[in-house]
Request: fold
Amino acid sequence: MLQQTQVATVIPYWHRWMARFPTVESLAVADIEDVLAVWQGLGYYRRCRMLAQGAKFAKEKGIPTTVEEWLRVPGVGRYTAGAIASIAQGIPAPLVDGNVERVYARLNSDPASGPRLNKNSWLWATEVLDKERPGDWNQALMELGATVCTPVNPSCDRCPLSESCLAYTSGDPEQFPTPKVRKTVVELRHELWIPRFQELFGVEQIPEGEWWAGMWQFPRDTNGERQPPAGDSRYLGTLRHTVTRHRISLRVSEVACRAKYDGLRWLSKEEMSKVALPAPQRKALALLSGPQATMDL
Reply:
């Protein structure tokens, strides 16, 4: 949950998650739709699916006891393996996240960026690791980056490593790490229709290979080829949201259908609150109770 998400945001989701899935076993046997519903709102849903797959793996094969074994678990990469092994199990394993990369780059005045910086950071983290207290060491490095060696306005006067920091002694620590080259933003325009028959709403499951796969959505056109559901259409508003480097303008309309038709799952408003809907879909549904609007997500 903490990958790419701040602690303050995660806390309420963590409590809700642990109340529903208190053990690895309870998560392993849960239906993926229920799992996604509990996760919804945190975003980056691939993490959720990988977590569920990882629980199934651990239930079948047992909890790993080495970094190498952790790396075999679906969804567990080098950072997560190092974090679990060192912090939870006391195994001498390094880890590197964005905070550790920044600490490394400034201490060593390394001008690298992107994959090269990441590789150099892992080599350094392996060399300096305190093998007697690996969990404390790794957490200290991450905390140093998060609270002292911050991206902007670092508190160098409070840093216990400032005297040996090459970026600090050079007088311009904020030039490190070297900024990555920004990817070009892609502008997209999508149409979304909310099919409504009496008090029921029609949704469809998002297929594999698309954003938010496994969750539910209202019918959506992404390339101008899909036709709207049959019925009387009413424009509700336009939503703007961003996915990775894609900036999407989502035009939302309600369609009053004359009958339920095949291909959609028809749900009441109460049932809609219990299924896993991506944030833009929930925002679209909320437009039904408000005036036409343009809003940014």
